[in-house]
Structures are given as C-alpha cells and as structure tokens.
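User: Can you predict the 3D structure of DNA polymerase III subunit delta? Sequence below.
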Amino acid sequence: MYERLAPLTHDSLDDIPEPSETLRLVGHHDAREMLRSAHAGSKLHHAILLSGPQGIGKATLAFQFAAQLLGEGTPGGFDPRDPAGGLYRQIASGAHPGVLHLSRPYDDKTKKFRTVITADEIRRVSRFLSLRTHDGGYRIVIVDPADDMNRSAANALLKNLEEPPSKVLFILISHSPGRLLPTIRSRAQVIKFQPLGVDDLFEAMGALQVALPGTAEERAELARRAGGSPRAAILLTLHGGLEIAQATDKLIAGRSNDVAAAYKLADAVTGRDAGMQFQLFNAYALERLSEAATTLGHDGHAAAAARVADAWTDATRRIGETEAYNLDKKQHVMSMLQTLREQLAA
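Assistant: Sure. Here are the predicted structure tokens for DNA polymerase III subunit delta:
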C-alpha cells in the first residue's frame, strides 16, 4: 500500500508515488550516461534542462540524481533508492535542506493550485542559496516544470542562473522548451528524453504497481495512445481515458449527430468527482485536432491545416476560460464535440 510522503502538487495522481518518492528509474540510459559522465569528469554544468514529453521520467531522474549527489549511492549510478533510508524520506517529503523543489504554488484563498509558477516562488531560490549546507555539499534547485513560469518568474530565475554560487545545480524540467526564454535555454545543458519503448513503458507501470489491461489488443491500444509516457498510460488505465477516447471517436465518426450519446459522454466527464476525466477529454480533443493539422500539413493541404490549427488554438482558449471562470462544463463538452465533428469530418 502506497504511503504518501511527498507534498501534493498540481499534477499529483491518487495512489501513485511522486517523482521524489519513485524508487527506480526505468529506461533513459542515454540521459543517465550523460549525467554520470559529466559528474565523473568534473564537468557537471551548473544548470541542466531535461527536455521531453510529459510523464516519461524526467522528474524521477532529477530526484534520483539529486539523491545520489547528496550521498545516496554512487552519483550517476542510478541505483534503486532505499525507502528505509533517512535521506530518501527527507528528499521525498521535501524536508532535505539541500533540495528546493519549485512547482505551481497552492492558493489558500481559492483552494486550488495556481496555473503558473510565480515570481514569489522563484524568489525562494535566493533565500535557499544564501544558506550553507552543513557538509559543504551540493544545493539543488528543481523547477518542475520550468514551462509553467510566468514572465516575471522566468526573469527572476535568469538572474540566479547568470552567477550561480559553487556547488549549486539547477535542474529545469521542460515538456515544451520552446516556451522558455532563449536566454534560459542558452544557460543550461540540454538533455533530451525520448518516449519509452513499449517494454520499458509496461515495466514502469509494473514498478508503480499499475495493472495492465487483460488482453493483448487492449495493451497494444494502451501503448499506442500513451505515446511512451507512463503518466499517460496510468491516466488511460485508471481514470477511464481509453473509454473516453473511444466514445469521443465514435461520436466524431458517426454519420449523424447522436445527441443522446454526446450528453452521456458529457455527463461522464463532468460529474462531481470527474475532474481528471474532464482533463482527459480536453487533452484528447486537443490531441485529435493537433494530429489532424499535422497530417494535413504533411499531405500538402496548407489551408486546411491552418484551419484546424486555428480550431486547436480556439479550443485551447475555451478550455482555459471554462476552468478559469467556472463555466458550464457540460456545454463546453458539447461544444467541443461539435468542433471535432466539423473539423475532422471536413
């Protein structure tokens, strides 16, 4: 039974360990070797940018490397972590004085996590760096994900990156490095992560004690939709993501507009405890539009690709407004389904 040590974050999943608690990193041998080699050769950059799709293990590697720099195993060895060790519990719970983990802050007034990492969060870096570790060891700042920083926060971080003290390591996690300031990217060593292969994907799910679907066909469908991301596979498996995608596809492909089926799907993803399902529906809708725009562009249909890309931009805006202003979610789902039918059947 999973016993949570880590603080909740904006993207925590029920009964799934946080990256700071994950005992073993699966895959990503090239990224591991780059860090191991840099540290062994005393060439470790003061800022590392871990870049790649969401949910594939970047934050897990960040915490595992931090733990080993601070004395848990051989730095760069990436041995499985010891859950009985005091260092493990300190880092996992956010109590280690040598590790500062920055993510979207919780807003006590709204009782929700902020949608961005604020400048106030980044200002914690200066206070953190002003303190000395008792053993003169590393101080490690993990920004997760750095993409979430607003402009003020990014500029504040840039000042810290320009003249870092000795034995300080910044680990920036990025799902979309194009959203970062070019000056931040230029001050960090970029390590690119690739989606996990199917075997590693299923091994990672097993390590997190998430059961795979029962049939080979279902497992193949899960692997295809997850795109090499254990987080995506977990969402698809435990939160009905596969069923939501299948129901959405059926409605889009239908020759006539099945209003009753559309309302049934809307009810399923907007219920009282369906916050994750609502996110999964929106993410899948955006994925379908993005795939369509890419395919049309590759096939030389520039005007059609631009039209679908504009629909993606508009859909993204509508999702944000629905969340920010607490608009009618059922109406949003119905509207989104109509957009998908119009754009993907055109």
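DSSP finds 14 helices and seven strands in the chain. The first helix runs from residue 29 to 40.
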